[in-house]
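G., before I forget:
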Amino acid sequence: MTDCDQMTLEDMLRCAGLRPTRQRVAIARLLLDGRHRHVSAESLSAEIRDSGVQMADGTVYNTLNQFTDAGLLRRVTVHNEYSLFDTNVDHHHHFYDADADRLIDIPADHVVLNSLPKAPDGHEIQSVDVTINIRLR
Amino acid sequence: MTDCDQMTLEDMLRCAGLRPTRQRVAIARLLLDGRHRHVSAESLSAEIRDSGVQMADGTVYNTLNQFTDAGLLRRVTVHNEYSLFDTNVDHHHHFYDADADRLIDIPADHVVLNSLPKAPDGHEIQSVDVTINIRLR
DNA sequence: GTGATTGCAAATCTTTTGCACTAAA
DNA sequence: TTTAGTGCAAAAGATTTGCAATCAC
């Protein structure tokens, strides 16, 4: 078994090259259970505190960055001043509801892109993010 | 003449519902000359200082926000920690080069979107942003 | 005049960092 | 034991805000 699914959280972290420390496991338990969510550092911090685990804010930020670098999370930036971390790392897109400051996933196959431009000289396309901004009708 | 083109900067600002104050005109002179640019609050602040005009940073931020609200600029957020303001308010998309932290415009017709999903109940689509992340090959 | 706008500095918010301490392997 | 990881507090960076002074009309 070479992929990082269907294992204990500890193994999943090891498999991603991260030591399964108490803090990382606590965050993994909240975020890597297969459910698709969008959390901010702040909301996650509050959730951790509520779950009885105590953790420094700096550690929350560092852990989120480590998970993102390891491909366990995806960082999403929209038109506000903080980052959201998406537990869905599959290719997909987003509705962004600015009124509620809320992201909604859109499966990749619901957005069909024909005719993408070529990347500028010396560059290649890494990924394509489509954000559909919505508002109340 | 009902649109806000082909006028003096002062009239252009008035037309957008903004009093043509010294500060606003100075920023308009730099940004609303028809050229397409991406500036950050910081880079603009430096440019203003270099041009001999003195202006508080808070005023730069406030003015950029006012221009954006008035539709004279467009705020673009990518995966970094500050906002960029795009002087091109026409519909278009972006390459984002994370290595250089640089945005490159893509004309709207170079990206063809077929099959957009419907907005969630009670909402309507306001705009669609496509960001193509690129990296060195 | 008078209401909108600005300057300025302080406040706020998000995020990163340095370093001594602790824990995983 | 050795190295990676954490806590904490401070720093950094972006942006907003409060209020008195100033400016456009």
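The CA atoms of residues 5 and 73 of chain B lie 14 Å apart. Residues 19-22, 40-42, 57-58, 61-62, 65, 81-83 of chain B lie near DNA strand D (CB under 10 Å from a C1').

More on Monday.
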